[in-house]
Design the sequence.
């Protein structure tokens, strides 16, 4: 194998490692975007540990750090760094696969506690003073306004103290307030379910890209090491 071919294949190794790093960076950015544009986590506290945006940011950050090690190791042809990268990436891929399974299964189990969390949040909203629990109030108002819904099952959940965010009109006449008749439980549950499915699909896609990169770069790395062509 001539030197130009070896150099080209080594560049391929670095490029594929960099592609893994880009995947991680994109996942972090997408997770941050979801965090900024979805303000519903405070209403469903049971699912917070695997809330899609949180999972994306944590996973993407770990992938970015691990793949940076691979890029750096490939550029410096450092045997130790690349071995560490391959071991960590393999472990991370197993974790990603497990995460995807959790999200697919969790999507089916979402009904069991969604109603309980939303009802609890509504009760806190109703019992709070005008200055208390602002986060839950703002999040519940945002849900009702964005999804055009009212209460958990319907306007009756508010027991006559219906907030302006339930009103169909904008601006709303408080003397005769026409409210949305559909409850927020179904709409918010469907929104979360679609997010879990898209997050799981994204994690599976990232897993496949990493698997392809690992399948190509690992044999090349082993070949170069055995032939004494670098990576010492």
Sequence:
């Amino acid at each position: 194998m001539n030197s130009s071919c070896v150099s080209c294949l080594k560049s391929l190794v670095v490029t594929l490692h960099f592609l893994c790093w880009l995947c991680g960076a994109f996942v972090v950015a997408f997770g941050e975007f979801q965090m900024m544009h979805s303000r519903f986590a405070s209403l469903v506290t049971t699912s917070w540990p695997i809330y899609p945006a949180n999972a994306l940011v944590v996973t993407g950050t770990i992938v970015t750090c691990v793949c940076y090690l691979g890029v750096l190791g490939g550029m410096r042809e450092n045997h130790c760094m690349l071995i560490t990268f391959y071991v960590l990436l393999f472990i991370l891929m197993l974790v990603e696969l497990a995460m995807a399974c959790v999200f697919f299964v969790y999507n089916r189990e979402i009904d069991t506690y969604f109603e309980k969390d939303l009802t609890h949040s509504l009760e806190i909203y109703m019992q709070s003073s005008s200055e208390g629990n602002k986060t839950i109030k703002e999040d519940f108002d945002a849900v009702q306004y964005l999804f055009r819904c009212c209460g958990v099952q319907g306007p009756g959940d508010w027991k006559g103290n219906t907030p302006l965010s339930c009103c169909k009109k904008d601006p709303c006449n408080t003397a005769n307030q026409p409210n949305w008749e559909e409850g927020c439980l179904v709409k918010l549950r469907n929104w979360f379910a679609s997010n879990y499915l898209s997050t799981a699909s994204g994690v599976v896609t990232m897993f496949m890209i990493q698997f392809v990169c690992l399948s190509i770069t690992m044999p090349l790395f082993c070949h170069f090491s055995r032939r004494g062509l670098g990576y010492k």
User: Anything to note?
Assistant: The first helix runs from residue 3 to 37. Helices lie at 3-37, 52-76, 79-109, 111-127, 134-147, 184-227.
